Q: What sequence folds into this?
């Protein structure tokens, strides 16, 4: 009985061409680089073991020295082969031969030597995990992350790997959000709302994040909180502020805000007596939004001269001059300057 194929010769030819499309894409630079990476990692681990045993590979154990009881004679142990390990990094996937050894303990027993550079059961570098998590957070699902990174990692990233990395990142994130702020010497607080694109419930969407930065007494900035509260309402901001206080944040000496009404209402209810300033970057953007494109450069120059004046009195003088100048210019175009207060 004859068998009639339903696949056309043209489709078969196309499929065969696709299968062999990348056969000639051999890159000696990539191959050579990954070989050097493997050699470097193995040399690093071998050097670590040599330090622990106080002798190189095939070297004899140092003889006991009665004059130096704390010298190398106090360190003893022996090698016993290698263990095959697979490691995935931003350099791709490499197969390693990790040396094994047993070290003598003070109790007269032996214990397996453990490398500090390559942790037990470690299969990926931290940078590889960061790359996987970043691709997922950018708004792609686990299968698309696997396909996107297969060329970099040599096809060694499965959707289960992506899920495990994300669960670890989520756990670290929750712990960071619950950390104590009681020991932080925060004197200024910067509060702002920003819109980012993320993946939620298997769909890419935009959300509003409420961000709080602290400035320590030495001038160093530190991120205090990033919360998704569904918007920038006064209730949302008040929940963020209450969480900061509950975690031990002390009352700051100065506040910098983005000018949103919800944030101002929440701050007035909690820290109404703390001096508050609107962010100069937000003021600048607001001014440019109400000015023609041809005047942006001139507006920016006058604004920078005003905010970087040497004293408060000079700032006030330049502010009045700024308003007078741009009120006259903008009236001719039917617009009024805003955000200069």
A:
């Amino acid at each position: 009985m004859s068998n009639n194929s339903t696949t056309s010769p043209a489709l078969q030819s196309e499929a065969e061409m696709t299968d062999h499309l990348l056969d000639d894409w051999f890159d000696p630079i990539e191959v050579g680089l990954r070989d050097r990476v493997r050699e470097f990692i193995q040399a690093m681990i071998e050097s670590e073991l040599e330090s622990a045993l106080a002798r190189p590979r095939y070297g004899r154990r140092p003889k006991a020295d009665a004059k130096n009881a704390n010298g190398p004679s106090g360190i003893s142990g022996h090698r016993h082969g290698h263990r095959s390990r697979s490691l995935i990094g931003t350099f791709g996937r490499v197969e390693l031969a990790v040396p094994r050894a047993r070290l003598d303990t003070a109790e007269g027993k032996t214990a397996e030597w453990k490398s500090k550079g390559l942790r037990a059961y470690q299969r990926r570098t931290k940078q590889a995990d960061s790359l996987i998590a970043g691709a997922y957070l950018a708004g792609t699902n686990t299968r698309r992350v696997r396909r996107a990174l297969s060329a970099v990692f040599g096809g060694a990233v499965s959707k289960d790997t992506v899920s495990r990395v994300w669960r670890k990142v989520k756990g670290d994130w929750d712990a960071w959000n619950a950390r104590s702020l009681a020991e932080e010497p925060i004197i200024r607080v910067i509060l702002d709302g920003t819109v980012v694109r993320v993946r939620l419930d298997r769909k890419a969407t935009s959300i509003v994040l409420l961000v709080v930065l602290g400035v320590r007494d030495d001038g160093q900035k530190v991120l205090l909180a990033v919360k998704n509260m569904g918007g920038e309402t006064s209730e949302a901001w008040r929940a963020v502020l209450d969480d900061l206080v509950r975690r031990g944040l002390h009352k700051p000496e100065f506040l910098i805000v983005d000018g949103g009404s919800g944030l101002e209402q929440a701050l007035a209810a909690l820290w109404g007596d703390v001096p508050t300033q609107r962010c100069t970057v937000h003021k600048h953007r607001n001014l440019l939004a109400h000015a023609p494109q041809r005047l942006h450069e001139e507006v920016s120059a006058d604004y920078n001269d005003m905010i970087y004046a040497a004293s408060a009195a000079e700032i006030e003088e330049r502010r009045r001059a700024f308003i007078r100048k741009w009120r006259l210019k903008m009236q001719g175009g039917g617009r009024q300057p805003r955000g200069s207060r």
